[in-house]
Amino acid sequence: MSLPPPAPPVFSSGSPVPEGHRSGFASFVGRPNAGKSTLTNAIVGTKVAITSDKPQTTRSVVRGIVHRPDAQLVLVDTPGVHRPRTLLGERLNDLVLTTWNEVDVVAVCFPANEKIGPGDRFIVNELTKVKRTPKIAVATKTDLATPERIAEHLLDISALGHDTGTDWMEIVPVSAQDGDQVDLLADLLVKRLPEGPPLYPEGELTDSPEETLVAELVREAALDGVRDELPHSIAVVVEEMGLREDRPEDKPLLDVHATLYVERDSQKGIVIGRKGARLKTVGAAARRQIEAMLGTPVYLDLRVKIAKDWQRDPRQLRKLGF
Ligand SMILES: Nc1nc2c(ncn2[C@@H]2O[C@H](COP(=O)(O)OP(=O)(O)OP(=O)(O)O)[C@@H](O)[C@H]2O)c(=O)[nH]1
């Protein structure tokens, strides 16, 4: 007796998955501020990863999912890789190496408005530890550079590949801001994915829990306008989130209780501001972003607590979700 052939794969809508459909994972890497989160958002077409002009703002692995008739591309947004100085730094770098090993293709971002530097070299050298994963080089932020500068940049990227023994599958210039060549990059990433049915239901944009996204939006608001070491000292945990009971169906209200952790008393003062003014502004900005993302009015209760030196303390790191 022979087993019946397996049922052909179908989309969650019920329509059959076409032959040659591809699915898999891609990861953008690059030094802090290289434009990885912005590129993720441009490819997915909606705000899933936070962006900011402060380096190293991405801490959690947020995935954006691109649904196309011929493919499903899952983008894994990793933290910026850097020389570890704290325990948090080490954990982040481990997370990055693990991610690189597991994805189908890695795209390394080099901002076209800046010269290739030691930070880029460090990353590309680290990348040589993952031999099997195909690598694509992306020259980002091309809207900020002249054609001559872009040409020079592409040559530098190629030379860096040569020096480190890295075989770039492609070198692509893009501007996430203008949407220039973003579709081409998506095509090139898809080409590297194995054949297979979709991994996530249609319409899903990210699999990170809403709490994580909300916490990231609060952190993004809190980072706006702070300087020096403080950005790295801020962590946000959403303690509780849920629709308020006893509300009419057409007037829902989402209650969000979040804690903003800093490392020292002096930082607490800065974050809260004079008579709480700064915290109020941060709360209002975060609330608007959360409302825009979730499409529901939000009541945001934001508290500030000190988790002493949490970046160096394993127990605190675990508590904060690292
Ligand atoms: N003009 C221009 N600016 C860009 C572009 N892409 C990103 N940026 C800006 O560059 C800064 C950093 O972008 P992000 O996407 O947060 O960079 P990232 O690599 O994810 O940064 P980390 O999370 O710190 O690793 C932000 O201020 C972006 O607005 C682009 O294509 N053009």
UniProtKB/TrEMBL annotation:
Residues 226-308 form the KH type-2 domain. It comes from the Bacteria. Residues 56-60 are annotated as: G2. Residues 30-37 are annotated as: G1. Residues 140-143 are annotated as: G4. Pfam families: KH_2, MMR_HSR1. GO terms for biological process: ribosomal small subunit assembly. InterPro entries: G_ERA_dom, GTP-bd, GTPase_Era-like, KH_dom-like_a/b, KH_dom_type_2, KH_sf_prok-type, P-loop_NTPase, Small_GTP-bd. GO terms for molecular function: GTP binding; GTPase activity; ribosomal small subunit binding; small ribosomal subunit rRNA binding. CDD domains: Era (cd04163), KH-II_Era (cd22534). Residues 1-31 are annotated as: Disordered. It is a peripheral membrane protein. PANTHER family: GTPASE ERA, GTPASE ERA, MITOCHONDRIAL. Monomer. An essential GTPase that binds both GDP and GTP, with rapid nucleotide exchange. Plays a role in 16S rRNA processing and 30S ribosomal subunit biogenesis and possibly also in cell cycle regulation and energy metabolism. This is GTPase Era. It comes from Nocardioides bruguierae. The gene is era.
